[in-house]
């Protein structure tokens, strides 16, 4: 059974940093690309970044380029999103996601609030 759980969200001031984590289980994590998405009220989920099985970033959202870095530890089945120079418009619920065995799986999300 696929299980994804995000953590690391919280309240941070503009210009601050957060590191999100996603613990994955129930599938061969090391050979699957993983995604970070985010969602704000009244807006659909948008792809923040894709992290390939090898740990490379792809499809990075223009507004986070140069500020956010996706990475993974395949030995620990963990996905990460390092977020620097945070802005109020980064406020959202952040989700990790995987497409596995013809299905798409999501974690419950973690709230990130950027505010002074």
How would you describe the overall organization of this protein?
- It is a single chain.
- Helices cover 0% and strands 52% of the residues.
- With 116 residues, it is mainly beta.
- The strands form two sheets. Strands 2, 4, 5, 6, 9, 10 and 11 form a seven-stranded mixed sheet that branches. A four-stranded antiparallel sheet has the order 1-3-8-7, with no helix packed on it.
- It starts with a strand and ends with a strand.
- The model has no long low-confidence stretch (mean pLDDT 97).
The general outline is globular
Order of helices and strands: EEEEEEEEEEE
The chain-level mean pLDDT equals: 97
Which percent range fits the helix content?
under 10%
Keywords:
single chain; about 120 residues; mainly beta; 7-stranded mixed sheet; 4-stranded antiparallel sheet
Which secondary structure elements does this structure contain, and how are they paired or packed?
Elements: E1 3-7, E2 10-12, E3 18-25, E4 34-39, E5 46-51, E6 57-58, E7 68-73, E8 78-83, E9 92-100, E10 103-106, E11 110-114
Parallel strand pairs: 2-11
Antiparallel strand pairs: 1-3, 3-8, 4-5, 4-9, 5-6, 7-8, 9-10, 9-11
């Amino acid at each position: 059974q696929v299980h994804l759980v995000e953590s690391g969200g919280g309240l941070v001031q503009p210009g601050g940093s957060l590191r999100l984590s996603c613990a994955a289980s129930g599938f061969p994590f090391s050979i699957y690309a993983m995604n970070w998405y985010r969602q704000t009220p009244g807006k659909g989920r948008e792809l923040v970044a894709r992290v390939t099985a090898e740990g490379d970033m792809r499809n990075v959202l223009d507004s986070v380029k140069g500020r956010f870095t996706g990475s993974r530890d395949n030995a620990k089945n963990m996905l990460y999103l390092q977020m620097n120079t945070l802005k109020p418009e980064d406020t959202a619920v952040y989700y990790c996601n995987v497409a596995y065995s013809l299905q798409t799986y999501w974690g419950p999300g973690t709230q990130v609030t950027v505010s002074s």
